[in-house]
Amino acid sequence: LCSVRYTGVAGAAFRQEQHRRTVPPGQEETVTMTVTYAEYQPHVGDQDALKLTVAGAIKETGQVLAKELRVRLHTPELTLTLLGPAVVGQEVPIQVVFQNPLPEPLTGASLRMEGAGIACPKPVSL
């Protein structure tokens, strides 16, 4: 498992596992890997993805199988809701909702709203 920059450049692998299985005829085998935020966070930036590369070798035939999966990390969205009627020349209350999906607090965040009629947008520290 490694990170992949938005440019397509892969970082160094930060997790590797090896499994040996015997698969009976007509059966399938499942291997599960859970990657925590604490494990991948130091390796990814805000536009990165994770790349999982799996390779398998069949002892009896010498055949090698490989597959890659790229997982894009989604950025949470802001939800904007008008809380009253939007009338020209009057203030309109707007609710902005952001939910932190991470298992740790976000610090140093700010919110800046811009739009028609907003003379001096001021960032709001969160």
Give an overview in words:
The chain has 126 residues and is mostly beta strands. The chain has two domains: 71 residues, no CATH class; 48 residues, no CATH class. 3% of the residues lie in helices and 28% in strands. The chain is built from one helix and seven strands, in the order βαββββββ. A three-stranded antiparallel sheet has the order 1-2-3, with no helix packed on it. 2% of the residues are buried.
What's the arrangement of secondary structure elements?
Elements (H helix, E strand, L loop, with lengths): L1 E3 L32 H4 L8 E9 L6 E9 L5 E5 L11 E5 L11 E2 L12 E2 L1
Antiparallel strand pairs: 1-2, 2-3, 4-5, 6-7
List keywords for this structure.
single chain, 126 residues, mainly beta, three-stranded antiparallel sheet, two-stranded antiparallel sheet
Describe what is shown at a glance.
Helices cover 3% and strands 28% of the residues. The protein is mostly beta strands and 126 residues long.
Strand order of the largest sheet: 1-2-3
- Low-confidence parts lasting 5 or more residues at pLDDT below 50? none
| Largest sheet, strands/sense/barrel | 3 strands, antiparallel
Q: Give the overall silhouette.
A: elongated
Number of domains: 2
Please count the helical segments: 1
- How far is the N terminus from the C terminus? 33 Å
User: What Rg, in angstroms, do the CA atoms define?
Assistant: 24 Å
